[in-house]
Amino acid sequence: MDGAAANKFVRDRGLDHAVEREKNLRPLLDVKNLIKSEPSKSLPITIISQQRDSLKIPCRPIEFIRKYPSVFQEFLPGGIGIHPHIKLTPEVLDIDAEEHLVYQSDSYKRLVADRLLKLLMISKMNKIPIRILDLLKWDLGLPQNYLKTLVPDFPDYFRLVGGEDSGELELVCWSDKLAVSVLEMKAMEGTESRSSIAFPVKFSKGFEMDKKLKKWWDDWQKLPYVSPYENALHLLPKSDESDKWAAAVLHEILNLFVAKKAARDDVLCLGEYLGIRSRFKRVVLHHPHIFYISSKNTTYTVVLKEAYKRGLLTESNPLMVIRNRYIHLMHTTTVKENGKDISIPSGTNQEKTDDDDDSEEEKVSNDLSSSDEDDETVAAVSRRRTNKRTNVNLKAPETGGGGLSRRRTNTRTNADFKSHCGNVQGQSPPQPHGSRNVHRKSQPRPSTLRDRSTRSLPE
């Protein structure tokens, strides 16, 4: 494994964008579900503030609510309320209704049940605590009350042992049909042998691999592939064979998640229960061309690189379609025109360029090939950088030579200005006492300030 230590982390802006675009989506939907659960379909802001920690709201609840006016509406009940109440907009209620239909569809229930069954078969004990499933509920795409609406519908798959808070979900019947990994399925569709499966990789732009690392990587890919559904206790814990099996387990688990990504701490928590936490950490560190770590949204996220292309998922999923609609609504601003609400996209990208011209220009330049929508932003950034350079030049010493002070230059008379204009036309302006003649181009200049900013420095 010494060769793997030479791997260098290279940032992937497309995958960073895929993670960053979901910022605040989970707390927003948690608040939405909390409001919807109330009989009045509204809540006072004080109740939301009391549950801020459990909802994981990143700022003051009232600021969070007002940040998304296309999702939440603030009002005073009866016009005399001391604390504002919050209700949902018709737009977000429409998306919520479609989300409910997705969760209630038989096809989606079967899809989620298959994911849970595969996860139970990966576990060596064939059972998983409910606390871990609740931790992965968002990633697995489970409905809010899955223990009551999903688990009872598949008694031949799994069963609940113990209570809902401290119980476990236990495997009922092993399925040979589902105990096949994604890589094994692709190998069966092609000509590749199941015993010599190689991982698909995506190298980030700028990633370099020396000869020693390249040889180690090629040898690692040729190692026997052990299915994540097989017992691998016979492998040495710190061997390359064991690491390839751990990579197969993590690869399969990320494929079970709807977004093909998850918070690193949640992945390691599952790995700890499976008894391979340290192997997960080593695999993620040594194989950045298979698993990408993003530091966006104030946390670390493990992303399956092969599942994305230019920052977008390559595999369609009905729940991700709904989540993308929520994201679009979050970044839509509602304004009133002629008494009617009109939704317009918010200008978040432009605001970012105002905060940091240099970093945003570099990001836009790197992403230009994958997004045609950034052309206008690039032009705006270029204009701002041009103005910045002009301002810097204006701060340069403005003496023409011979000890002429800046203050004297700034208090030039109209006669001096006319003399300067005459110099542009080929006439010789009067020189200050003790100054040297400086060669000037005969091309016309648009203004006096521009001419002063390009004068020669004094000796």
By CATH, the topology of the domain at 13-89 is Arc Repressor Mutant, subunit A
Q: Quote the distance from N terminus to C terminus.
A: 61 Å
* Lateral strand order in the biggest sheet: 1-3-2
Tally of strands: 13
Q: What are the main properties of this structure?
A:
mainly alpha; Arc Repressor Mutant, subunit A; three-stranded antiparallel beta sheet; RNA binding; disordered N terminus; 459 residues; 13 strands; 46% helix
Task: Please explain how this structure is put together.
46% of the residues lie in helices and 11% in strands. With 459 residues, it is mostly helical. It has a domain at 13-89: Arc Repressor Mutant, subunit A (Orthogonal Bundle), CATH 1.10.10. The strands form 5 sheets. It has a 3-stranded antiparallel beta sheet. Strands 4-6-5 form a 3-stranded antiparallel beta sheet. β12 and β13 form a beta hairpin. The chain is globular.
Quick description:
This is PORR domain-containing protein. This protein has helices at 13-20, 25-36, 45-50, 52-55, 61-67, 90-104, 106-122, 130-135, 137-140, 146-149, 182-189, 211-221, 240-256, 264-274, 277-286, 318-330, 348-355, 357-366, 375-394, 406-410, 414-424, 448-453, and strands at 42-44, 72-75, 85-88, 127-129, 158-161, 168-171, 261-263, 291-294, 301-304, 308-309, 312-313, 332-337, 340-345. The protein has 459 residues and is mainly alpha-helical.
